[in-house]
Amino acid sequence: MALGSKQCLPCSVDEGVMADHISPLESGQLLSQDIPMLTSPPPPPNIVNGEGPQQVILVQVNPGEAFTIQRDDGQIQCITGPAQVPMMSPNGSVPQIYVPPGYVQQIIEENGVRRVLVLPQTEFHPGGHSPLHHPPPPPPHAHLQAFIPHPHIMHPHPHLYSGMAGGTGDMNPQYISQYHPAHTTIYSEQDTHPPHGRAAFAHRDERASKTYERLQKKLKERQGVGGGGGGGLALSKDSPPPSPQKSRGTPPSGGDLHNGLGGKGAEEQAQPSTAVTGLGKSPGRGKETESGELDEEAKALQERLNSICKPVVTDIQAKGASLSWVAPSQTEGDDEPTEGEEGSAEPSFMYEVSVSYCGKDGKYKSAYSGVELSATLQDLRPATDYHVRVQAMCNCLQGVPSEPVSFTTLSCEPDRPSPPRKASGTKSSLVLQWKAPCDNGSKIQNYILQWDEGKGTDAFEQCYYGPQKQYRLTKLSTASRYYFRLAAKNDMGVSEFSEVVHIMTSCSVPAPPLSPELIQSGVTWLCVRWHRPAGSPKEDEISYVLEMEEEGSGYGFQASYDGDELSHTVRNLHRSTTYRFRVIAYNAEGKSIPSGVSEFTTAPDRPGCPCRLAVKGKPHPTSFRLTWDPPKDNGGSDVTKYVAELSEGLSGPSWNQVYSGSAMECVCDDLSPGCSYQARVHCISAGGESQLTEPLQVQTPPVPPGPCQPPRVVGKPKAREVQLRWAPPLVDGGSAVSLYSVEMFAPQVDEGWEVYQGSELDCTVGSLLPGRTYGFRLRAANKAGYGPFSERSEVTTGPGAPEACRPPHVTCKSPTCAVISWESPPCNGAAVSEYRLEWGAAEGSMQMCYTGAALSHEMRGLLPATNYFCRVQAVNVAGVGPFSDAVLCQTPCSVPAPVSSIHTLRESEMRVEGSRTTERDEDEDEEDEEARPLLYSPSTCLGLRWEAPCDHGSEITSYQIDLGERQPILTGPVTKYIIQNLQPDTTYRIRIQALNSLGAGPFSHTFKLKTKPLPPLPPRLECTASSHQTLRLKWGDGPAKAQPTDSLQYHLQMEDKNGRFISLYKGPCHTHKVQRLNESTSYVFRIQAFNEAGEGPFSTVYTFTTPLSPPAPLKAPRVERVDESCEVSWETLPPMKGDPVIYCLQSMQGNSEFKQIYKGSATSYQLPNLSSSTEYRFRVCAIRQCQDAPEIIGPYSSTVILLPPRVDTPGVSGATGSKAAEAQKPKRSLTDEQFSFLIIALLAVTSILIAVAIQYFVIE
């Protein structure tokens, strides 16, 4: 039924149904994999019969629903209801509507509008089909909903819905439908719906129920093995299949799901469909289930698909072959139906055949896909080896390809050859050539060339038969057209003839053509045309040569074109240049005479932009003059006009034309001072307009600003300052105001002076007089200078403090008294109430000394000859006036002040005049007597020192020292004096006064000073004992040890190697032992006595000499008895300072005295003829043999006893004999090391015993 140019498809849904369904937009899943997009096959011809070429179909989207389409740019768009989406149908058909199981669709036409109704069946058969319409399922897809549509397998129409198996990018924007029940179905209001949105199916097919129970049993068995985990979704016997919303995203694992919808082959429509529960996650419930596992039935199906046998090739032809194969057989382990049950539905298989012509392991291409068990391969190559294999598929499962089968196509006749071509020709002959076509497995033996003999009919005659690939035809007509075709022949037959081609013979030389004509001219090109020579036949193939000559080049005519066209555009020419053209026609016979010459001129080019755009002269505040030069390149024609444009500002938003003419300068006026402008120029000629010049920036100079408003007073005027404020001028002159100048006019003065200059808008004018009227005026300045003054404004100051007094007058009545007087200053409108006088010795540290209304003040207690400063200020009710200038005054001179303090000189400072003045410290006793200066004796002299008092303006000429009963001593202007010829140990009362030219000052306080007693004389020094390293000296008659009451002390000194005396002893003792001396050396000593009176003189020097040192004592000699003699040996001593050392050995026999038995340098001696009954004693000493002195005998060593041998009696025991032997052994003394070790051991033992005693008795 035709609907005209428009069709409307209202896919409306009942509102009650909408409440039970969950919209994809509400769940947040717009374009995820859980929202499938289905393809739709073309509608059956008995339902939709639109005849229009293209029609618009309106798709109505209800509220809460979504419609997904793909735009032209490839983007996916989701349209939510309510909306009507116009869609273009290329063939006028209505898109197919899919319905859920248990419903049928019915198309009703009302008022020319088709409406699709979805109505419930009176009895639901899952495997049945609608009596009105059988919509086929879309291609398989893993993410589509588990609806079970009618089981038709149909291929989609290419003009309706494209498949979605490849992803969203493969969609066709003509029809894109989101498969959802609410989008495509209409439910009646009388239907009832369960909470999950699917209709309750009351009737079930018996076979379907048995199949469902069997699958439910398998599912329970698998869950029992897994411990009852919540992986699967158990379905009750009477519950309907899962709703589309809750099973979205569940990949089917059963056998008969096609694109997410259950379907069967056309031959199995009567069998029930099998509902298989998915193993994935259910979005509707949010529960996790087992994923990625196939159940036992799916595994069995996969093994069945993998067991397909290789195909069988039959009926092999040159360009085709037939294949057949056997469906995969059922394995032995598959479940067998029990008794009473009908056989389970056989799954529907699809097969894909792929072919490879590159060998067994080459790349395979799909050649067939379908459900049939045979296929025919077309368009194969003859005499070619092929490998073919088959692969089985069922729903989402895909088997392994079978083993490939190889076959070779047969040979056949050659391919259709290409038409022959003309190799060469003359007026009466043609030479034709051709290429060999594909021989298709059999060598080409001959070629068949046919022609029409120039008759122009479709009747062809053979003109050549042979193996050559070229042929020459002769005796032909001039300028005649001949038609040819070619065929190839091999053992298998003759190929098809090639396309018919016409070839002409040559003609005579063409006639000269007419002169060329100009079609159009440009700046660098000329378009020229010409005509075919008159009288030339149409069959004659004439070509043309266009020759061109540039005027003035001197090269003559040059070929610029060679071809068969009758027009040509010559490019890359010069502008405004004349060119000459002629044409020559030629064919195979030769060239014609050149045509007549035509002259054409290229058009001029547009000129370049003007040069050197600049400002002529100095810019004025409101105008400036622009000048420029003509362009360097005028484009081949003269410039006719220049156009100047001006823009205000540097951004150039708008340009205004200020000049248009032939002159090369112009004046830009009516400008604003101090503004920036941009100017540009372009020129116009016959070639067009030039480019604009670069903008020239011009700055007009500013002018001084306009007058300001008079300044105004801020607040109440003060007595000595006024604060003024003003506003900027209304006209700034094109430049910002940078400076303001304020002038002030004093009362009764005509000339003013500047009191402020700056950039601020206010100022404070100070140093004014109180109660006066002042005038002020203002002017502003910018870069151009100062503007005019404003009008004058009058300001009156308030009353103020008095002015500064004149400097006061100071009169000195005496050196310690002065009188200060001053005058009253101007009061500035208020009477002076008091005066303040400041007085001080320094100008910066004056202090207030008077406050009152008097005009004078007397200062007492001043210092004579001292500088003083003073100043005064006046005070009234308005405030305190400034101080007057400080006045310096000086008191008169007077007698000196008394001496404040007197000190005694130290003894080191009491030097005799003219003596040596080298100073030394009292502790340096190393200096000799000659280096010490001569000092006055403190016993008969007193040294005085005092501080000079103030001279009171007159220099001190002398000092007078009063000693009481003695005559006063008059000194010069010194501060140190030594009084001589005094009595020792006597007290004197001393006072001092200073004298100057004005008289004597007062005496100082009285000081008591006492002379010291006379120092003691040195004692006599003598040596009481001496050794080679020490000297014991003694002096005086007192005891050797000092008494605590002795005040007399002694100072002993010894001369060193440098001739200086160094201190050895200082104290009250009368003896001293000098140690660490050298032997046989003379030492010089002197001594001095001192007490409280001072140090006495040194004695004369005494010389004492140390004796030579004796040899060191030897250790006990060693004695060894040898028969009747003995050998005595001792240690050796080295020579002593060059003096040799000899030894003296003494022996004592019995109780007699020691006698010398040996004297010499040897260290051993053998004594013969010893008495066997006598005891011998030996000792040895060293003797130093001095060169200039007698020998010095050293101390003897310890004695060694040699006992006589005893004869043992027979009755004496062995013990007695051993004791006698021991007694005969000489006794040896301990060495120094052994003796030291013995002492240390005894000390250690003693310490340990003491510690044990302390631990035991004290601590415990």
Automatic annotation (TrEMBL):
Which Pfam families does the entry link to? fn3 (PF00041)
UniProt-listed InterPro entries: E3_ligase_FN3/SPRY, FN3_dom, FN3_sf, Ig-like_fold
What are its GO cellular component terms? Golgi membrane
Which residues fall in a compositionally biased region of kind Gly residues?
224-233
Ranges of compositional bias, category Acidic residues: 332-344, 920-930
- Residues annotated as region Disordered? 187-206, 218-299, 324-347, 907-932
Which SMART domains does the record match to this protein?
A: FN3
What keywords appear on the UniProt entry?
Answer: Golgi apparatus, Membrane, Repeat, Transmembrane, Transmembrane helix
What is its membrane topology?
Answer: Single-pass membrane protein
Q: Where is this chain's protein located in or outside the cell?
A: Golgi apparatus membrane
Q: Does this UniProt record's set of keywords contain Transmembrane?
A: yes
Q: Which residues form a coiled coil?
A: none
Q: Which domain of life is it from?
A: Eukaryota
The portions of this protein that span the membrane are 1235-1259
Here the segments flagged for biased composition (Basic and acidic residues) are 907-919
Q: Which residues form the Fibronectin type-III domain?
A: 307-412, 416-508, 512-605, 609-703, 707-800, 804-894, 927-1014, 1015-1109, 1110-1207
PANTHER family attached here? E3 UBIQUITIN-PROTEIN LIGASE TRIM36-RELATED, FIBRONECTIN TYPE-III DOMAIN-CONTAINING PROTEIN 3A
Q: Which family does it belong to?
A: Belongs to the FNDC3 family.
- Record-given protein name: Fibronectin type-III domain-containing protein 3A
